[in-house]
Amino acid sequence: MSQTDATAQSEPGSEPSSERDSARLKWTIAAIILLMAGALGLKAWDERQTADQASLSHLQAEARAIAASLTGHADTAEMAIRLIADTGASRSAVARATPGVDAVVTLTDADAAPDGSRLKEAARTGEALLKEGRRIGLSEQGDIVVISETGKGLSVLALAPAGTWLPPVSSARRLTLIDGAQRAGNGEEAMAPGVETGFTSVGRLDRLATGCAPVDGAGLVLCASQQAPLFTLDDLIRILIFGLLLAAPVLAITGLMARLTHREEEVIMDEVRDDEVNRIMNIVMHGARAGYWEWSHESNAVYLSDGASELMGMRGHGELSIEDLLHQVHPEHRDRIREAFRKGQEIGWVQAHFMTSFQPARWMELRGSVTEISDDHTRVFGGIILDITERRQSEDRVKAAERRLRGAIEGFNGPFALWDHRRRLLYWNRAFALDFGLEGTLRAGMGHETVMIARAGALRSEQPSDTDPQTTLVALNDGRWLKMVERPTADAGLISVGVDVTENVRNEEELKRQTAQMRKTALELERSEGRASELSRKYSEEKAKAEHAAHTKSAFLANMSHELRTPLNAINGFSEIISNELYGPLGDERYKGYAQDILTSGQHLLDMINDILDMAKIEAGKMTIDPQTIDPVDPVDAAVRMIRRKAEDKEIELVLDTQPHLPEIDADHRAIRQMVLNLVSNAIKFTDAGGKITVCVEQRGPDIYVGVTDTGIGIPAEDLPRLATPFEQVTGSKDRNYEGTGLGLALTKSFAEMHGGRMILSSIEGEGTTVAFTLPISGLPDDVEEDARDVA
């Protein structure tokens, strides 16, 4: 309700005109006050302008007086210059006799002064003055320069500091000489003025008043400056006086206005109350996402407020039929709303939930009651519509979370129970009822003590924990063990959780049994410790004896090389001479055959002794190799050529297969040849006539591969691991058909490892054998070279 409407209702016909008159009076009074204030303001402004003009006039007059004084000083300086020219007096004497003049010099002498000096700057200023036709000026260093030409054609300068020709000033004033861009003067530098008479703003409330006057006609200007505050004491007094003049009528008018205002406040009070109530109601409805509705049973019309219309997907408030309202309700819920209104007429109130038909669909709650208007006794349904979508969604989320929680609890394979703050049973899973034999017994609301007593029949024993008073170890009648833990909840409730620890208990019992057994064993070990100590002592003695015997054997074999080889060399030499009949025929062929048998047996015996001595040297740590940079094919080819005759005698094909362009290696030529001879000799020994032996030399990765493959009898798989052991052969001693010491493979393996390589052995019984060794291309390993290539 507006202010005008409220007045019209209280006094029909008279209130509107009264309000218009009051408004006219207010505007008239306001205009009068503004006119008076404007007149007083103009008066104050005029007086202020007059005072400012007087201040500027005073400064300008002061500037003219000081300018005249400067002109007088310039005249005095010029007279001194002419006195020098006319009388020939000393310039220094004249300068001392002239007040304020520091020096009198010719323009030529001043120009000859050093750069940056006062005389040099004065000379430049004097030259500029002559060009401009002036006699007085200001140098860059703040000196007043007076120039005059004598009758002899000389230009003479009089030099004086600007401060000496200007009168002293107070701290709030400044006198400034201005000559183009050059300035000098007395007073505060911050008050340096412009070149015109007037006021200059130097802050929010400060001004600078300046009065200027020319010196000696034109060119040089003198300005006098002083602070001129924007507001002075006179201004404040003037404002106070004019304020008092304005206050009297304003107070009178204010009294009249207060009376009128009081009357207006009384008129609009009711309207303000109504507006405030409506505003608060709208705020509450909007914040609660609610709206107001009314339904008249007689007219079957429904009134919706703005908030209710918005919630129902409609624009604006107003009346509509019940069917129009139901059109905004989901079809499945329309009968529910009709029934709610019908019953509401009987019971006097209504409450129903429904979903809207428009998208996005929202959930609404309809609440109301039947009221009766006292004027015409009309029965009206009235109430609110609430948007409860978020509440329904929250309830759905809570229900879903509860279902998930129940599913998780039921999925837990141990017993679980939840109690409220009064220790009454709220929820339990199936395992809780089964484990404690409480199926069909448990009910929601049962006390904690009652349930504990009821479960006692299913327990064999119950042991409280030593470390946690809320933990109990329970033994069930079926042999299982449960660890029951009870913990308080945030709302002072209680949770009971059980975990099957049967395996842990059994393991603990087994651990105790094993601990007892270990203690028993420890006692037995203590008893046998004395016997073990005695056996250890005897073992050490026997080991020392064995090591001494082995060392003696190795030393004996190594030192017997000369004694064993010398007679064998003689036997072999003489038998070779006899078999070759170097000194004539033997006569009988049998002697030649016997000599050949002696030579063959001697050579075989020498080879066996050499192998035994080499193995003894290796075991004694006295065997060394001498690596040189060689072609890996050379020692292999030499060995094949040396033994080829032996293979041909047995009708065995011996083939050498080498890869071209093999890299050189660091190796012992003799050792490689010996390894190949050993391997090929073994292959010939175990290969029958008509067989084939292939010697292969090739590069495999970072190594040179040397392999000997035969088509002999082969080796059983179970015998392969022991063939590289000294004196080992495949066949036993009773049925051996092949001669030899069994040292060939052991020597080959040792020589290969001394080079930093390894031996490879593979065989198929009845098909043949391949024995190979590898040699690193990059040379021997560092540890082999540093250890002098010794291998024990």
Detailed description of the structure:
By secondary structure, the chain is of the alpha+beta class. 49% of the residues lie in helices and 22% in strands. The strands form six sheets. A six-stranded antiparallel beta sheet has the order 12-11-10-15-14-13, with helices on both faces. The protein has a six-stranded antiparallel beta sheet with strand order 17-16-21-20-19-18. A five-stranded antiparallel beta sheet has the order 6-5-9-8-7. The longest helix is centred in the N-terminal third of the chain and has 73 residues, at 15-87. It is flat and about 170 Å long. Residues 1-15, 732-737 and 783-792 have low confidence and may be disordered. Keywords: Kinase, Phosphoprotein, Transferase.
Summarize the structure.
The protein has about 800 residues and is an alpha+beta fold.
The low-confidence parts are: 1-15, 732-737, 783-792
* Number of beta strands: 28
| Derived structural class | alpha+beta
As laid out across the biggest beta sheet, the strand order is 12-11-10-15-14-13
- Give the fraction of residues assigned to helices: 40-55%
Biggest sheet layout: 6 strands, antiparallel
> Proportion of β residues?
15-25%
Q: On the 0-100 scale, what is the average pLDDT?
A: 78
C-alpha termini separation: 121 Å
Globally, the shape reads flat
Radius of gyration: 66 Å
Number of helices: 20
- How many distinct domains? 5
EC number: 2.7.13.3
Enzyme class: transferase
Keywords: Kinase, Phosphoprotein, Transferase
GO molecular function, one term: phosphorelay sensor kinase activity
